[in-house]
């Protein structure tokens, strides 16, 4: 009898209800205006970086090849969650279908995991460029860069498939409220009508381990780079330090969220929504700012591109 009731509840569950950032209407309107601006600036900034790198032949190097990948991922990563959040601001129900929820989780983890792998590859690229400059173009040739790009996208896809498959096979029943503004694995599995202890361990050992291991590798890589920079001349050291500082800022902002959310059991904390906002909306906006304001080559390329555009407008 209990199994029949559970089956009926599970079959009837075709959607989830997102609680959003707040139930206060004024707070929701303020959040809508703020995140709409954030999203538009994220699109403009990251797309501009990709166009600039494609346009300027001086930026056709491994570092900027990976940076263009990062900007593309940031556009996609933000698009997975922010448009839905903006739409839900005007909706009282804030519903999302089961299939849409699974799809959102898949792409969220695809782009997030791919970005983690990409940040690790970018750290390796900087290590070779600074610590082994004479071997740089041999080690980081275009064939290697393409293979690394394929590998990190493949790794992100495998990770996302593995993580998402753990959730959509579970039986779900009422209540079906997700205490966030998007679907994510830790919040969704709490709604399952089954024991999820093993799955939570798998999530921590999967997402949490990837985040922690990559963070440790990144910190060690930049520590080695900083030690190596002590032996270089002042101008080269200043430029390399600026690049590494930009990378470390992005790494801390992005991986800080991943470690906070996925390295612990699926329990809700008051800070979760704030951390999620930075993860999905703020960090993709900060990346183009960090990489352009602290990078002379990017600033020069942007000035050249804007000058060319203005010149065409005058004609």
TrEMBL record:
User: Which keywords does UniProt give here?
Assistant: Cell membrane, G-protein coupled receptor, Membrane, Olfaction, Receptor, Sensory transduction, Transducer, Transmembrane, Transmembrane helix
Q: Which family does it belong to?
A: Belongs to the G-protein coupled receptor 1 family.
What GO cellular component term, any one, is given? plasma membrane
**Record-linked Gene3D superfamilies:** Rhodopsin 7-helix transmembrane proteins
Which SUPFAM superfamilies does the entry mention? Answer: Family A G protein-coupled receptor-like
Query: Which residue intervals define the domain G-protein coupled receptors family 1 profile in the entry?
Result: 45-291
Primary localization: membrane
Q: Name one GO molecular function term.
A: G protein-coupled receptor activity
> What Pfam families does this protein map onto?
7tm_4 (PF13853)
Tell me the InterPro entries matching this sequence. Answer: GPCR_Rhodpsn (IPR000276), GPCR_Rhodpsn_7TM (IPR017452), Olfact_rcpt (IPR000725), Olfactory_Receptors (IPR050427)
Check the record and name the SMART domains matching this protein. Answer: 7TM_GPCR_Srsx
Q: How does it sit in the membrane?
A: Multi-pass membrane protein
The answer to keyword Ribosomal protein applying to this record is: no
Name the chain's protein.
Olfactory receptor
**Subcellular location as annotated:** Cell membrane; Membrane
This molecule's function is given as: Putative odorant or sperm cell receptor.
Q: Which domain of life is it from?
A: Eukaryota
Q: Where are the transmembrane segments?
A: 29-55, 106-124, 144-162, 209-229, 241-262, 274-293
| Keyword check for Aminoacyl-tRNA synthetase | no
CDD domains, alphabetized: 7tmA_OR4E-like
């Amino acid at each position: 009898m209990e199994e029949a009731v559970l089956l009926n509840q599970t079959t009837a569950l075709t959607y989830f209800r997102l609680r959003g950032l707040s139930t206060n209407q004024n707070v929701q309107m303020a959040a809508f205006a703020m995140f709409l601006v954030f999203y538009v600036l994220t699109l403009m900034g990251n797309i501009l970086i990709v166009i600039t790198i494609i346009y300027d032949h001086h930026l056709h190097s491994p570092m900027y090849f990976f940076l263009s990948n990062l900007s593309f991922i940031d556009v996609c990563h933000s698009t997975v969650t922010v448009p839905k959040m903006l739409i839900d601001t005007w909706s009282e129900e804030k519903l999302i279908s089961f299939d849409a929820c699974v799809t959102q989780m898949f792409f969220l983890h695809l782009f997030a995991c791919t970005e983690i792998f990409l940040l690790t590859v970018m750290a390796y690229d900087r290590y070779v460029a600074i610590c082994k400059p004479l071997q740089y173009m041999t080690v980081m040739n275009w064939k290697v860069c393409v293979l690394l790009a394929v590998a990190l996208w493949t790794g992100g896809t495998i990770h996302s498939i593995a993580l998402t498959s753990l959730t959509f096979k579970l039986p779900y029943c009422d209540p079906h409220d997700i205490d966030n503004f998007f679907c994510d694995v830790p919040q969704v599995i709490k709604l399952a009508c089954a024991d999820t202890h093993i799955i939570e361990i798998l999530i921590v050992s999967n997402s949490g381990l990837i985040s922690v291991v990559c963070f440790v590798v990144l910190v060690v890589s930049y520590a080695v780079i900083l030690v190596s920079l002590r032996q270089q001349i002042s101008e080269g050291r200043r430029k390399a330090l600026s690049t590494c500082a930009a990378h470390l800022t992005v790494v801390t902002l992005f991986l800080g969220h991943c470690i906070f959310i996925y390295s612990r059991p699926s329990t809700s904390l008051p800070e979760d929504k704030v951390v999620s906002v930075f993860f999905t909306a703020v960090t993709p906006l900060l990346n183009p700012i960090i990489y352009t304001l602290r990078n002379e080559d990017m600033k020069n390329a942007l000035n050249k591109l804007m000058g060319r555009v203005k010149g065409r407008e005058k004609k």
